[in-house]
Amino acid sequence: MNESIPVLIADALSLGTKRGWVFNGVDLVVPTGSLTAVAGPSGSGRTMLLLALAGRAKPSSGTLRVLDERGNAELRRSAVREAVAVARVTGAAELEPDLRVIDHRSEAGMLAGKPIDYEWAAGVLGLSVDGAAFVGELPADDATLLAVALAAAAKPSALVVDDVDAQVTQAQQARIWAALAELSGYGVSVIASTHSADIARRYGAAVCELGATEEGINAGV
């Protein structure tokens, strides 16, 4: 893919409910082969923004465009879903702790509907886990990278991964960001959410900052 052409462009993207804005007025350009951190406190709309950017949640207003190799823009959410894979979204799309790694690998292949290259993705991410291991027994950083590897194995244009700082030490978080940066170097744009983007910045991540209101439901950049 042409590196000068962004994968996604969000203009004034907003999602609201009767209670208020979940996120509001987000402008974001995701270049090909880039690393983006969506940062903000709990209640800032990070998870729902990732779902919207992956075409899994319908924004209330604004536009989200996915671009092909020639720079042609497509506005349909189905086109966004084809381009952007979901590695993990907390509470919506997560690995089953009671399944083995090999089971998730088989499932990922079936869901992709095309050949996938898990070994390539795991190698890029520096991930080595026993296929017979239960996901719930893996260290938190291995579990996160496993979710990313399964999504990246189909070589999507981009992928989203939620809460990369959940239940991990700073050293584990640094390992995750380093691995995500490495993956982005292979042309897969990565959009990851975190409470704080301090560690992400060390690995070259562009940062989209979200902030919560007193009600904890209104966010913007």
Q: Oligomeric state of the chains?
A: single chain
By DSSP (H or I, 4+ residues per run), the number of helices equals 7
Number of strands: 9
Mean pLDDT: 89
Q: Profile the largest sheet.
A: 5 strands, parallel
Structural class: alpha/beta
Spans where pLDDT lies below 50 across 5 or more residues: 213-221
The N- to C-terminal Cα distance equals 29 Å
Order of helices and strands: EEEHEEHEHHHEHEHE
Please state how the strands of the largest beta sheet are arranged side by side.
Answer: 6-7-8-3-9
What's the overall geometry?
globular
User: β content, as a range?
Assistant: 25-35%
Helix coverage percent: 25-40%
- Using only C-alpha atoms, the radius of gyration works out to 16 Å
Annotate the secondary structure layout:
Blueprint: E1 6-17, E2 20-31, E3 35-39, H1 46-53, E4 61-67, E5 73-74, H2 77-83, E6 84-88, H3 101-112, H4 118-125, H5 140-152, E7 158-161, H6 170-184, E8 189-194, H7 198-202, E9 206-209
Parallel strand pairs: 3-8, 3-9, 6-7, 7-8
Antiparallel strand pairs: 1-2, 1-4, 4-5
Helix pairs in contact: 4-5, 5-6
Written description of the protein model:
Helix content is 31%, strand content 26%. The model is unreliable at 213-221 (pLDDT under 50). The chain has helices spanning 46-53, 77-83, 101-112, 118-125, 140-152, 170-184, 198-202; strands spanning 6-17, 20-31, 35-39, 61-67, 73-74, 84-88, 158-161, 189-194, 206-209. The strands form two sheets. It has a five-stranded parallel beta sheet with strand order 6-7-8-3-9, sandwiched between helices. Helix 6 links the parallel strand 7 (158-161) and strand 8 (189-194).
